[in-house]
Predict the 3D structure of the following.
Amino acid sequence: MRTPTDLLSVGEVAARVGIATSAVRFYEDQGLITSERTAGNQRRYRRHVLRRLSLVLVAKRLGIPLSEVAEVFATLPADHMPGKRDWDRISRQWAAHLEARRRELEQLERELNGCIGCGCLSLRRCRVLNPGDALGIEGPGPRLLPHED
Ligand code: FES
C-alpha cells in the first residue's frame, strides 16, 4: 500500500499528469522539476512534482515560455507543493503577461488591417513585415549586412 511520502516513478508521474514520460524527462532537463535516483539509477519523484507539472501545463496553454516558468519556479519552495499564496502570485504574474500579449496582438491586428487588400509585401513599407523599422530611414534593403555598392 502506498503512502503520501512514497516516491513516484517517471511512468507514474507521466500517467498522473497526462503527459509522456519523455515530457517528464524534458521538463526535468529544463530544471523545472527534480528527481532522486534509486540504487539502480532510476528516477524517483516527490509528489509535489505533480503540482509543478500541472503549472507547466497551465503555462503552456497560456503561451508562457518555459524560461518564464523557470523564473517563477525559482521563487517557489523546492521541497514541497506550491500553496494557494504561491498560486495567487503566479496567476497574477501570468495574467499580466497575457494582458501584454493581448495588446501586442491587437497592435498586430491593426497593422495587418492596413495590409489587407494591399499585397505589396514591401520590406520597406509593410509594418507587419518590418515592424518598428528604425533602419528604414537609411534606405531600402538590409542595412546591417555587408553589401556591394
Ligand atoms: S502588404 Fe502592403 S503594407 Fe503590408
Observations:
- The beta strands are 36-37, 43-44.
- The chain has a mean pLDDT of 85.
